[in-house]
Amino acid sequence: PGAALRDRATERVEKGVGGCETEGSARGGRGKNTVLSEGSSLHSGSGGGGHHHHYYYDTHTNTYYLRTFGHNTMDAVPRIDHYRHTAANLGEKLLRPSLAELHDELEKVRAPNDGFANGEEGTPTREAVVTYTAESKGVVKFGWIKGVLVRCMLNIWGVMLFIRLSWIVGQAGIGRYTFMLFYLAGNYLSTSTFPTNSLSVLVIAMATIVTTITGLSTSAIATNGFVRGVLCKCKLAFIHSNLIIFFSLSLSLGGAYYLISRSLGPEFGGAIGLIFAFANAVAVAMYVVGFAETVVELLKEHSILMVDEINDIRIIGAITVVLLLGISVAGMEWEAKAQIVLLVILLLAIIDFVIGTFIPLESKKPKGFFSYKSEIFTENFGPDFRDEETFFSVFAIFFPAATGILAGANISGDLADPQSAIPKGTLLAILITTLVYIGIAVSVGSCVVRDATGNINDTITMELTNCSSAACKLNFDFSSCETTDCNYGLMNNFQVMSMVSGFAPLISAGIFSATLSSALASLVSAPKIFQALCKDNIYPAFQMFAKGYGKNNEPLRGYILTFLIALGFILIAELNVIAPIISNFFLASYALINFSVFHASLAKSPGWRPAFKYYNMWISLIGAILCCIVMFVINWWAALLTYVIVLGLYIYVTYKKPDVNWGSSTQALTYLSALQHSIRLSGVEDHVKNFRPQCLVMTGSPNSRPALLHLVHAFTKNVGLMVCGHVHMGPRRQAMKEISIDQAKYQRWLIKNKMKAFYAPVHADDLRDGTQYLMQAAGLGRMKPNTLVLGFKKDWLQTDMRDVDTYINIFHDAFDIQYGVVVIRLKEGLDISHLQGQGSLNFFLTYSCFHPLEPKGPVAPLNVADQRLLEASTQFQKKQGKNTIDVWWLFDDGGLTLLIPYLLTTKKKWKDCKIRVFIGGKINRIDHDRRAMATLLSKFRIDFSDIMVLGDINTKPKKENITAFEEMIEPFRLHEDDKEQDIADKMKEDEPWRITDNELELYKTKTYRQIRLNELLKEHSSTANIIVMSLPVARKGGVSSALYMAWLEVLSRDLPPVLLVRGNHQSVLTFYS
């Protein structure tokens, strides 16, 4: 340790403290023949009573050695002082030696300038390649007018236009519509905050705000990249691709589902796809019920009823939906022609209504129609809610009339140029339909009173001066409607527009056109959305609905399913009941579309570049929030149910993890968040409380050493980084090809096997260089490995010793760059690559495919050794039971030897295991040392079942074990004393791994210690689940590779799984808060 420590030690010696007790030759201090004795043990003020650590000064190396277990060694035993803050005023701070002091060559060891030690101890990304099996010729394609504008207008001008808009005006009044925009901007959504004298065209304005913002968002998403709309059977193949791609390949069928899924990912897309498809199916029922209701009203006028009103609606609705199904199944070309005819009829009906408002026939006045009158406009300007209706209940009934804005996007695959057609057609449709809705609402509110008897005799012959109602001022007395039910007026007659029109049959035709066209559009949209969802295989149970038929790939099975859903809701036969059901579903879809644009903009993905520029991320966010608020205000429990359904589907898809990669903004934001946090983290200094084992695991191909992988994963999962290193050697060109293939292949293998790890292949001329590259370059910023994990080289006695030398030099390289080192040994071995049909593999260098592999030839039965190896390879995947994890914490490496076992016990498979701690000590201090270690562990808040102090570590091992060791190393000895000097030097130069006689004698004590430790391990830990033990450190340039490998061999032989651990001698544990 440092100069201050030497000064204190020398001062004590010069004062004559204690006697002298050393082994080997005495060494002097600072030029004086002084040695620290037993009595001069350097404890900290608060740590007295710990192990006696005896320092003496070596004049050759300027290094103090610490006497542990009665032998000269710098390695420090674990004690509390090493974990104190340097500034803690708790007496003299005792520092553990740095890793460099233990590991560097002797001539390189220098004392620090200050008084302290320098250190303290499957689904890879992919892109879908679409193979088109349908020929492009003969596929019907539409422009923006026929494909989007016409379709959206017809879908928006639905049932509400002719048979509910007049009722809405009667309930809410005219004025509410015009003021809604301003109240929404101020978030005044409670009806109590609206002016009591203004409530009407507001409903339309509110719906328009929602749909306009959604239309802008839809246009932004639809124009983000080239959009192909080819109807085809798609066969998906997957290749490695860039992370972030937005709609750069193809916009398939699916409308809102496709837009949301490709923006927010399959979790939200899958959830909203089912809901939106279901909402469109229910919308078919709503429009058909509206049609049937009109037909029944016409039949009532002629006193024709089949059963009663409700059942007649059911019968007519069922017949109608069957006919619509037939038109839809006939194909898109027939459906498009039908839409044009229906639009013409609908436009004529609107014109007919407008003309009729200027023709006040006397016969219509008793029914409440007086043409444009200021008195009526004034009276109808304010609200008059009846039958427990409120502003938002009325809005809930009206809102489905504005939900046709995605009709064009829903058939994006049928559009010739979706990127241009969707924005132009959708926004223009919103503008036109909104103006028509407002115009009709103002017109009908200015021409028709709320209540009328229909009785021509209810006229007033004399002029009254105290009239309060508009009807009275117009010489009609409808006051009887206050006490009895009337059949006419805005509040009572759903067929007001027919009554007002110049030619009533044309209005009926318009109603039929509006309802049937909207029903037809929804009937086409729902199956195509569902087909797109099923093609993505997000919900495997629905895969049968992905199949298409004919040249246009028509989803016939989807049509049948939609038909059945619609028929079920038609049987309800109540328009005002059906409408609020789908309002929440449509609002949820719109909320997610708006959120998609906000999310994509927030993610700042380079791939988010919409050609449509008239959008704003914050307006989209406001639109999303507005949709959510309106959902709750309309019906809080229905909104809550919708959210629960979306959340449930989201959780399901998240759990199932569908094998898709669409370059969603969720991925982009994940990347951005990771990047920002990594940069932020890079500016944060390391702190012992935040230490995490971040392991570079030299697995080769990850599936060839499953035991190594699973054991490291057990203590790094959700805690630290795990990188699977793979060194490819051999010709560079071939290796580069293999790396390119392996990168995607093995990362996918890790994901499929639920390994939270990264695969890092590298090419190098030899294993050592490749490992150095990985240790230097793996990771990012603070997210870099700090611990090297290797498997024990089981075959070292039979292999080329140059490979052994390379293996041991990797240890030295790791210590040089301040890595911790973990060596894992299973007596059966780790490498199972030869059992996968791959043949014999070199260390780390493996070429394999996914496990399990199909054998290339006949499979021979496994021999006993291979059977045991296969069983051992899976042992860490099983629950470990109530056994022990034995920690032999002999030398203080900063606490990594203790931290790893603790992390293991926090995992489910290891939680029942108890930690037993073994430490070295002296016979006469066993109780004292046990209490000291118990205190330290309690301060670290690490539970343990027992502490065993080994006082006989320094006992000489059994003779037969010494003999066995000598026989093992005999082939690797140099025997330089028996050779001429020149020959010995030449052999040492050519074979540096050989063991010299001088080296063997110099490290005799340490060799005996490894043999003795193995004896103790067999005595105390032979039944443990796993043994975690301090890894002995070999001085670089002092201990040959063969001798060090022999130490590791004899130390860990014939034992349960062993982890030999050596941290980088910087603290990884602390007892400070």
Automatic annotation (TrEMBL):
UniProt record similarity statement: Belongs to the SLC12A transporter family.
Domain SLC12A transporter C-terminal: residue ranges: 705-838, 863-1073
Keyword Membrane carried by entry: yes
Keyword field: Cell membrane, Chloride, Glycoprotein, Ion transport, Membrane, Phosphoprotein, Potassium, Potassium transport, Sodium, Sodium transport, Symport, Transmembrane, Transmembrane helix, Transport
Cellular component GO terms held in the UniProt record: apical plasma membrane
GO MF annotations in UniProt: ammonium channel activity; sodium:potassium:chloride symporter activity
Region described as Disordered: spans on this chain: 1-50
Broad class of the protein's primary localization: membrane
Coiled coil: none
Location(s) in or outside the cell: Cell membrane
Domain of life: Eukaryota
Domain Amino acid permease/ SLC12A: 247-696
Keyword Cell cycle tagged: no
Organism (species): Vombatus ursinus
Amino acid permease N-terminal domain residues: 58-109
Lipid bilayer topology: Multi-pass membrane protein
Entries under InterPro entries matching the protein: AA-permease/SLC12A_dom (IPR004841), AA_permease_N (IPR013612), NKCC1 (IPR002444), SLC12_C (IPR018491), SLC12A1/SLC12A2 (IPR002443), SLC12A_fam (IPR004842)
Protein name according to UniProt: Solute carrier family 12 member 2
One GO term of the biological process aspect: potassium ion homeostasis
Compositional bias segments (type: Basic and acidic residues): 1-15
Catalytic activities: K(+)(out) + 2 chloride(out) + Na(+)(out) = K(+)(in) + 2 chloride(in) + Na(+)(in)
TM annotation in the entry: 154-179, 199-227, 239-260, 272-292, 313-332, 338-361, 391-413, 425-449, 559-579, 585-603, 615-634, 640-655
